[in-house]
Structure formats: structure tokens, C-alpha cells
């Protein structure tokens, strides 16, 4: 195990300054991902700064516009159990409940969850194998190797990994914002722009810079929030990451879709919005299965499966169909 020094932050400004000034320092919240990364030698920080003592970052607040503000240090289990989260955005509560295990959810924070790194086995396999995300320029063995769980959208020759967070998919579907505090103040990053596609620099998962601290996630009030659902398809029913997952929210009039939000997990380096399908589904009746399937298919014209994951293209479309109907039954 890589050795590190541990200290505790009591003041957000000082924590941000320390992180900005020291490239070998990492924030630690629940530690459920970071300690695994250190053990797997995918992260080698010399200093960890425990941010759990920072005040005002653990609350869950229902906003007057029907939205939510979820503090970055709120625990996954607390957010999933919150009555306003469940009432306003079942998709968020379900995205959390289908993730990890009870013990992990009690420990893991929302900020840490959206920052977790890929589960690509080459990335997590110590120093023994090449991996552009761990060691830039060393190559991507998954491109032609074991890539059953990898991306079908937006990948590059440099990296074909997927992002593993479930609740990130729900946040992306509902147009949430990541509230980030840095040295120059606070800013809101649209959730769909927070995670990056790999391009030529897969070592960077998101748009954060040194000294950036996630303080909260804000979800705007949305009519599709109440009739929303998270479907996760995985190799076993619990304690497993998604093969594909879908966050769906819908509003209808006389069973016809008046607005819809769809995002997928397990298919790209970031939560993947199905914007083409969202447009094509407008006006379609939830009772017209053929028209629904045709509209959903529009979002898969740009799918580029790898050697071992062609099955995901069909599986994903079926999952979207099922998630949409389940969300629709809540409308
Ligand atoms: C066996 C196992 C199964 C799992 N299954 C799932 C699953 O099915 N679905 C799923 O979504 N997740 C799953 N997870 C991942 C789990 O949800 C994450 O490990 C957890 O959410 C990370 O939160 P944490 O507070 O422990 O983060 P930490 O491990 O403390 O930190 C993770 C990263 O986030 C950074 N960070 C933390 N807080 C902040 C902040 N406020 N601002 C900026 N950076 C910050 C840290 O520096 C670090 O880089 C699983 C994990 C394990 C170990
Ligand atoms: S897919 Fe990405 S994380 Fe996996 S081996 Fe390739 S570069 Fe590394």
C-alpha cells in the first residue's frame, strides 16, 4: 500500500488553497473509491485531506421551485431515504439504491460518487498492464482486448472505458448542476458537461481543476421528475455495476409524451443523454410500442460497439423502452 499522511480540513477556503498548491494532495470523503484506487496503484497521493468536517456540505434541501440541493458530503443512503428526494425525483433515489451495498452507501458521499473512476479491469490492475488513463501514452489494451463492459458511444482510440456512477446518470437526465468552489469563487457546471469524453486525454475524467471542491449538486424542479425511473441491467442483481442503465422521466397528456428526459449509464465515458430519442418521442403515445421503439432507435444510429459488446446496442434499446414505460406508468 502506498503510504500517505492524513490531515483533517476545518475550513473550505484553506482546503481549496491546500489542494490548489499541492499536486500530491487529494481530498478524501467516504474513502470507498479512493482507498481502493490507492491499493490498486491507480492513485498515488502522498497526502489525504479529510473533508468530512467541512460545515454546510452534508444537507439535503428541498428548493421552492420543486428542485433539490444535495450537499456533496450527504451520504448515498441518506439521500436515497430522503422523503423529498423520493417524492420529487424517484430516479435519483433509485439510482442510489441500486448502487453498491448498504454498508458502502452509508459511508459513500454524493461528491465522491460522481468523482469515482472507471471499473475498467486494466485500469484497476496495479502497475502490471498498460493503460492510457493510468499511465498516459502507454496504450489501451481494452480497445482490442476484454471490452464486454466498455463503451458503445463517444470512445476514442485512447480509451474505451465507461463511467461507473449510477446516480450521475439520474442527475444528467434531470439537467442538474454541479456546484464547484475554487480559488476564484463558486460556479455551476451543467451536469452533462461535468464528465468528459476520453479524446486524447483519458487521464482526465471531468472538468475539475486543482483546488476545485464540489460543494453540492443542484437539481432544478422538473415536471418529468415525479414520473421518473432508474433501470439498471447487470450481471447479478445486487452489488454489481451496470452493464447498461437508463434514467427516464416523462410527462404526458392523454398518454401522449409531451416531454421526456433520457440518459444512459454503462455506454460511454460519461452519462449519455439520448437527445435524438427525446425529440423523436414527442407526441408519441405510450401505448404505441412500435412508434416508441422506432423513436428510441434514432439515438442508436451513432453507436459504435467494440468486439465484445455488440449485444449492448440491442440491450440498451430494450432497457430504454422498459424504463420509459415504467416511468410513464407513474405519470
Ligand atoms: C465494491 C463496490 C461496489 C460499488 N458499486 C457501485 C455501483 O453499483 N454504483 C455506483 O454508482 N457506485 C458503486 N460503487 C462506488 C461507490 O459508490 C463510490 O466508491 C462512492 O460513491 C465514492 O464516494 P466516497 O465518498 O467514498 O468517495 P472517496 O473515495 O472519498 O473519493 C472519491 C474521489 O472523489 C474525490 N472527492 C470526494 N469528495 C469530493 C468533493 N467534495 N470535491 C471534490 N472531490 C471530491 C476524492 O478526492 C476522490 O478522488 C461501488 C464501490 C465499491 C467499492
Ligand atoms: S479503456 Fe481506458 S481505462 Fe481501460 S485500459 Fe483503455 S485506457 Fe485504460
- With strands numbered from the N-terminus, the spatial order across the biggest sheet is 4-5-8-6-7
- SSE pattern, N- to C-terminal: EHEHEEEHHHHHHEEHEHEEEEHHH
Gyration radius over CA: 20 Å
Largest sheet: 5 strands, antiparallel
Number of strands: 12
What fraction, in percent, of the residue positions are helical?
25-40%
- Cofactors, ions, other ligands: flavin-adenine dinucleotide, iron/sulfur cluster
User: Which regions are unreliable across 5 or more consecutive residues at pLDDT < 50?
Assistant: none
Q: How many helix segments? A: 13
Cα end-to-end separation: 51 Å
* Share in β-strands: 15-25%
The chain-level structural class is alpha+beta
Provide the residue-averaged pLDDT.
97
Structural notes for this entry:
The chain has 331 residues and is an alpha+beta fold. It has 13 helices and twelve strands. It has a five-stranded antiparallel β-sheet with strand order 4-5-8-6-7. Strands 9-10-11-12 form a four-stranded antiparallel β-sheet. The mean pLDDT is 97. The structure holds flavin-adenine dinucleotide (FAD) and iron/sulfur cluster.
TL;DR?
By secondary structure, the chain is of the alpha+beta class.
List keywords for this structure.
binds iron/sulfur cluster, 29% helix, binds flavin-adenine dinucleotide, five-stranded antiparallel β-sheet, four-stranded antiparallel β-sheet, alpha+beta, single chain, 331 residues
Amino acid at each position: 500500500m502506498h503510504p500517505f499522511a492524513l490531515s483533517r480540513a476545518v475550513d473550505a477556503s484553506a482546503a481549496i488553497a491546500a489542494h490548489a498548491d499541492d499536486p500530491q494532495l487529494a481530498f478524501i470523503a467516504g474513502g470507498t473509491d479512493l482507498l481502493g484506487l490507492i491499493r490498486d496503484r491507480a492513485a498515488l497521493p502522498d497526502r489525504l485531506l479529510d473533508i468530512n468536517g467541512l460545515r454546510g456540505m452534508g444537507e439535503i434541501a428541498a428548493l421552492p421551485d420543486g428542485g433539490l440541493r444535495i450537499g456533496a458530503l450527504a451520504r448515498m443512503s441518506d439521500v436515497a431515504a430522503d422523503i423529498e428526494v423520493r417524492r420529487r425525483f424517484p430516479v435519483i433515489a433509485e439510482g442510489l439504491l441500486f448502487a453498491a451495498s448498504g454498508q458502502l452507501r452509508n459511508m459513500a458521499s454524493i461528491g465522491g460518487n460522481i468523482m469515482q473512476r472507471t471499473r475498467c479491469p486494466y485500469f484497476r490492475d496495479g502497475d502490471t498492464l498498460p493503460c492510457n488513463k493510468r499511465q498516459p501514452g502507454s496504450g489501451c489494451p481494452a480497445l482490442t482486448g476484454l471490452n464486454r463492459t466498455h463503451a458503445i458511444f463517444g470512445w476514442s482510440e485512447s480509451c474505451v472505458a465507461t463511467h461507473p456512477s449510477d446516480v450521475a446518470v439520474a442527475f444528467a437526465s434531470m439537467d442538474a448542476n454541479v456546484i464547484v468552489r475554487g480559488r476564484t469563487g463558486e460556479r455551476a457546471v451543467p451536469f452533462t458537461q461535468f464528465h468528459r469524453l476520453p479524446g486524447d486525454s483519458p487521464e482526465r475524467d471531468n472538468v475539475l481543476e486543482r483546488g476545485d471542491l464540489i460543494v453540492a449538486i443542484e437539481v432544478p424542479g422538473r415536471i418529468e421528475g415525479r414520473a421518473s425511473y432508474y433501470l439498471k441491467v447487470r450481471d447479478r442483481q445486487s452489488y454489481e455495476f451496470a452493464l447498461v442503465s437508463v434514467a427516464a422521466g416523462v410527462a404526458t397528456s392523454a398518454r401522449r409524451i409531451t416531454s421526456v428526459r433520457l440518459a444512459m449509464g454503462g455506454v460511454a465515458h460519461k452519462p449519455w443523454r439520448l437527445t435524438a430519442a427525446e425529440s423523436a418521442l414527442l407526441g408519441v403515445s405510450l401505448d404505441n410500442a412500435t412508434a416508441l421503439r422506432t423513436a428510441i432507435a434514432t439515438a442508436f444510429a451513432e453507436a459504435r460497439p467494440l468486439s465484445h459488446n455488440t449485444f449492448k446496442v440491442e440491450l440498451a434499446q430494450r432497457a430504454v423502452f422498459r424504463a420509459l414505460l415504467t416511468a410513464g406508468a407513474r405519470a
